[in-house]
Amino acid sequence: SLIYWPNPTSSIVNISYSKTISQLSVTNILGQQVLSKDVNSTEAQIDFSGMAEATYFIKIFSEGMEKVVKVIKID
Length: 75
Description:
Strands 1, 2, 3, 4 and 5 form a 5-stranded antiparallel β-sheet that branches. By secondary structure, the protein is mainly β. It contains no helices and 5 strands. Helix content is 0%, strand content 69%.
């Protein structure tokens, strides 16, 4: 199962998945990629502290599958 917290966030978002996460990609509401990260683990963290207050989408790539979750960045 996929768990991500806290949401909304002002800094770090933790991601935990039952399968190995190969890569994470963060896009803004306009569809522009603002971060890409290779993971190769069942847990990951994304630092949103330097990003603008907005809504973002995290694409989680794992074992040929792709999941998208919405995260709200607050100050």
